[in-house]
Each structure stands twice: as C-alpha cells, then as structure tokens.
Structure of Transcriptional regulatory protein DegU:
Amino acid sequence: MSAPRVVLADDHPVYRDGLRLMLASTGQVEVVGTAADGHEAVALVADLRPDVVVLDLQMPGLDGVSATERIVSAVPETGVLVLSMHEDDDTVLAAMRAGARGYLLKGADQTEILRAITAVAGGEVIFGQALAARVSGYFSRLARGDVPRPEPFPQLTAREREVLELIAAGLSNAEIAERLYLSPKTVRNNVSNVFAKLQVTDRAQAIIRARDAGLGRR
C-alpha cells in the first residue's frame, strides 16, 4: 500500500510547518499541500484529491466544521481528520456530524497521528485516546436520553444563533434590532455572519436550514 497523500490545514504556520516536517520525516505519509485557512483547504483538496486532509477547526475565513462539510460534499473520497485543541463534546460532535472521520487533540504524539491518518485513509472512523472513552460514553448517555441534544449550528456565536432564531420566526432586520435592542448595523453584520457560516446566499435559504434544525417554531 502506498503512503497516504495528505493535505494539512492550520492557520498557525509554526505548528503547520512543524507537523509537515514531522510527517515527512517518517516516510509513511506524503504531504502534498498545506493550507492556512478554511477556503484554501477546500480549494486545495478539490484540486489535489488527497487521501486525507488533517484539519484544524479554528481557522479564519471559513471555520473547520464548515470546511469539513464542503470537503465531504465535493470530494467524498477524501477523509477528514480533525486535529484541534478543542475537546468539548459539542465541538467534537459538530465535526463528526459535518462528516469528519477522525478527531485528535493537538497534544497527540507522532505515533497517534500517523495511526489516525492511516485509519482514516482506510475508511475507518477514529478518535484520539483522550477522547474515545468520553465520546463513547456521551453517545451512550445520549441514546438513553441522559444528556440534552447538542445545539444546532455550533459554529455560530450565541448572538448569531439568537438572530437566526428570529430570522426563522419571520422577523425583518428592523424588527430584530428592536427586539434585541441592537443597532441596525449590528444586526446586518450578524445576519451576514450567519449567512457566511451557514453557507447560504439569502434569507429564504437561512430560514429553511434554521427551521429544519427546529429553530423559529416557538
């Protein structure tokens, strides 16, 4: 079996370059490209069609969860392996719902990262040692109804989710500004951020996505 072809996406150049050098030194992985933000990662994966993209979640322009959704939709044969410092349940589950096949924390060592890349390239789903037991336990509790369902659209801030809720309820920008005691400009900025993060181009698409997730019905 040939070495998996990998794209690395992380907005921190020191970490990204260090990871590239570490993986290249093993001879077990071929790093074919690197990206510094979510948009660049999506474009690079579409162009190079690697076996695996190792992706951070906190990136400028397009966050890692949204980038994962686009990559999985456009290039389903490429496996997404998240390598992030975030370990809260909602973030991990959001990445997996977006289509990621693996999730590691940035404290993972060389052996664990190589093992995860190989597993994802082979079509497996894998969690890092620090997450596996907790995620398994979380799903067990979720199945029993012992934990609340995760909030939809975790990439949104609390204010952006509040604005989306009101958009889904049919309120105009002026009505949202009045309801939340915000300036019209602040509301416009929040609406633009919501559209960008949900990857929609207009209010109608945002309403459909929000109502499908259960927002705007109260």
